[in-house]
Amino acid sequence: PFGPLAAASLVAVHPLVIRLGSSAEFEMLLTLWTTATLVCVLMAERRDSKRLYVLTGVLLGLALLTKALALLLLVSLGLYWLLRYGWRAFRMPGPYLVSGTALAIFALWFVYGLLADRTLFMLSLHRWVGQGAIVHDPRTGLGWGVWLRQLVTGGLGLVFSALVAVAWLRAVVGYRQAP
Asked: How far apart are CA 84 and CA 146, in angstroms?
């Protein structure tokens, strides 16, 4: 019971989470699409279903439309298939169905953006890769130096540091007591 409580406490007082609270909807959407993608790919692997592979690609495409960080999921799935199946992965339909569907959905954003409003599209592209102006776009996040300075100097930083220390102490004690 201590682990989930400590994790929730750490997230609740983390300076970056507090600072970016206004853009939490993007992280929540990315989490939703990522989790759904992973569940769907596992179901597709278990059932060897082409429909589920295509659905996985749709979910991954939605994750890609949400944030650039989803590119890591695309790469991770590719590595998963390579490690699990070796070179046979290149002869399987699943990886092609997933990546093809995801990239096709993602490409629609570029087509729409270039045809509809180029200026808005370029601003959206800069936000998607995390290079928007921090004054205008709070989703760009904090640099590590700013985050560490807030952690050390802020009042919440002291609480966060204390919770981290308790969590590490608990983990070390639990590890030493494990058989």
From this structure: 40
Tokens of 2: 């201590």
Q: Which residues touch 130 (CB under 8 Å, ≥6 apart)?
A: 68, 139, 140, 141
Task: Report the C-alpha gap between 10 and 123 in whole angstroms.
Answer: 33
State pLDDT tens for residues 38-60: 999 999 999 999 999 999 999 99
Q: Could you tell me which residues come within 8 angstroms of residue 154 by beta carbon, excluding any fewer than 6 positions away?
A: 15
179 token code pair: 């058989």
pLDDT at 59: 95
Residue-wise burial string across 109-121, b where 16 or more C-beta atoms lie within 10 A, e elsewhere: beeebeeeeeeeb
Closest alpha carbon to 33 in 45, 21, 25: 25
The per-residue pLDDT for 152 is 57
